């Protein structure tokens, strides 16, 4: 939290850490796909509710983990772009993440409601943490959109809300990672009779969990490290008179 | 991440949030105690391994959650104290947290190894995340102690290491919260046949999990909000020539 002017070597470090973060994020999605695709029976929609569930972990890891992280990273990964396109990209990626999340939620609820007999929803700690993360995400989207993409909002309001938007954005992301970890664990316990003998599937699930921890740590580092903060560009100046001192 | 000079009103806010944080932390420990004490059969040591396990959640919530959080908060809760006593208090509370953690680990391993037949250790995602948190905690302790309480370490080394120490300290705390959430969930699934009908015990467990999320969020907010950063005192000046620009 000391200096905030990026030196060439700190930007070089940023590129390396950013690249590793992307690779870890992509690996999580691929491994999640192979877990549900290979070990849990593949994919179907409402015709086979038990298999429809498998969309839930896959789409959530794309939406609430990979896209959510990347949407936060946009301001730092593309530091030399102008502010306005970055804001729109941030909103579009988050919007995409939300679409994946809604379909993932439908898959989870369907897999309970369409089972014979139907199984209860929303009773595990995973579901409580996950719903909290999704609600926080949706509120952030509404407030963020209103504050920064609606024309005519007062500058003082925009800059007062910014640290709040950033804090709850990061909190929501960490909550999404916590929801993923609890979700992975409960599905592992529910679906593997031999979890305790650590078969390959169990190692795969635990490794996805550890990669989620690494990805979460890297994303939070990249978005909070003051050295990596985006600096205002000369071209921003006109824009900045309308949207000051955001991220 | 804007201003860093605390105004009277920001310090007033700090006191209120700090108080709420302590109340939430204490509530977690009390509810955890009543869960394992009332619903999971109380406490014993090696004579009854299944019951010995109950020390694990209780001692971990005291050590890795309540004390860990409070040890980080020491620099901000007692901002007007001199630096040296704060450093020693930080080390002592973390040391105490480590003692609770070690006994909690012994209780968990005993409950598996002394069962008839013995049950396997370290196979769930909870155990992998938890062990990572404990190892990170121990490394932080060794490096922090060496850097800041050993005399004669170069000032430049101390101040270079500070942001690393702070980052991994917060990461370790968040990991400890994630470990607590996964641990709560797996114990709930393993111990409740009727988790899905949300009996009072299930609501209690899920509420402890939600309070952990709130406590984690509040602690991270209090230790990262720049307004609440401790300022150097006049009496620190002599001390500061030996240990510059730490938290």
Largest interface: A-B, 43 and 44 residues
For the largest beta-sheet of chain A, the strand count, sense and barrel status come to: none
Shape of chain A: globular
The rounded Rg of chain A comes to 20 Å
Helix content range of the residues of chain A, please?
Answer: over 70%
C-alpha end-to-end distance of chain A: 15 Å
How many helices of chain A? The count is: 8
Approximate strand percentage of chain A: under 5%
| Low-confidence region ranges of chain A | 238-247
Report the strand count of chain A.
0
**Helix/strand/pairing category of chain A:** mainly alpha
Order of helices and strands of chain A: HHHHHHHH
Instruction: Classify the oligomer.
Output: homodimer
Mean pLDDT of chain A: 92
Task: Describe the structure using short key phrases.
globular; 73% helix; 247 residues; 0% strand; disordered C terminus; mainly alpha; homodimer
Structure description:
- The structure is a homodimer of 247-residue chains.
- Chain A contains eight helices and no strands.
- Helix content of chain A is 73%, strand content 0%.
- Chain A has helices at residues 8-39, 49-52, 55-77, 83-113, 125-148, 155-191, 200-224, 236-240.
- In chain A, helix 3 (55-77) runs antiparallel to helix 4 (83-113).
- Residues 238-247 of chain A have low confidence and may be disordered.
- By secondary structure, chain A is mainly alpha-helical.
- The A-B interface holds A 1-2, 119-120, 123-126, 128-129, 132, 163, 166-167, 171, 174-175, 177-178, 181-182, 184-186, 188-190, 195-198, 202, 205-206, 209-210, 213, 217, 220-221, 224, 226, 245 and B 1-2, 119-120, 123-126, 128-129, 132, 163, 166-167, 171, 174-175, 177-178, 181-182, 184-186, 188-190, 195-198, 202, 205-206, 209-210, 213, 217, 220-221, 224, 226, 229, 245.
